[in-house]
Amino acid sequence: MKRLFVFISIMFFVQKIDAQEQVNKIIDSLYKEDQFYIGVTNNLFGNKPADLSQSGFSSGFHLGFIKDMPINKNRNVAIGIGMGYSVNSFNENLLISKDNLGAVSYTILDDDKTYTKNKFSRHLLELPLEFRWRTSTPSEYNFWRIYTGFKFSYMFAHTTKYIGDLGSFKYTDIEDFNKFQYALTLSAGYNTWNIYMYYALNSIFSNNVNVDGQSLNMNAIKIGLMFYIL
Questions:
Q1: Which parts of the sequence belong to the Outer membrane protein beta-barrel domain (predicted)?
Q2: What 8-state DSSP symbol labels residue 26?
Q3: Residue 49 DSSP SS3
Q4: Alpha-carbon torsion (154, 192, 14, 35), positive or negative
């Protein structure tokens, strides 16, 4: 919730600056749009085992830059390519633990009353590629947009954390996380508010991870809001 409050505060501050810039903006026939973005999502699991569940708000925070490259005379159709950063947490009942020899095990916790925190977080460097359509003009700053594309991500850091009846432990060296992620993305909306959807095409974990005899082939699904500026 803290990330959500920070995001909303930043969004209104940036919107105020952007509105002032639009007032002072000289009409530019070679304009570009939406080259900076900031967003917040609720993170979900796809293809999860039947007994695995999530609790609370699993937050994602996203920001970055996309170079807008119009490909038609009206400049309302464009290709975008950029770079960004994303941090994503997943609150769930999948316990990731180690034994005395350092072997990693995965267990689904049946009773959520036995722990107060159980989650993992991933920090990603992202390369978005988008096909962009919008109703903008050189003098129109409020417009409809649909941006769809592909996002390639590299996980450069992660954390798993548990606090409960089994004690308190935290790991930053679980090798079973897939370092690379590939996803389809969609942003659509009008003016400030845009719905954002992300659907990963590969699993969060590597193929050798099993829980209760099932392959843990879960992928990440993110749904939230995206805000664009400049």
A1: 30-205
A2: P
A3: coil
A4: positive
Cα separation, 21 vs 209, in Å, equals: 51
| Amino acid code (one letter) for 31 | Y
CB 183 within 8 A of CB 150: yes
Q: Measured between alpha carbons, how far is 104 from 25 in angstroms, rounded to an integer?
A: 56
Q: How far apart are CA 18 and CA 35, in angstroms?
A: 12
Beta bridge partners of 36: 65, 229
Mean pLDDT for the chain overall: 89
SS3 content of the chain, % helix, strand, coil (to 5): 10, 60, 30
Distance from C-alpha of 92 to C-alpha of 60, rounded to nearest angstrom: 15
Does 17 score more than 70 pLDDT? no
Residue among 151, 150, 145, 185 nearest 33 (CA): 145
Q: Are strands 219-229 and 115-134 parallel, antiparallel or unpaired?
A: unpaired
As to burial, measured by CB atoms within 10 angstroms (0-12 exposed, 13-18 middle, 19+ buried), residue 190 is exposed
Least confident of 13-27, 56-70, 192-206: 13-27
Alpha helices by DSSP H, listed for the chain, are 2-24
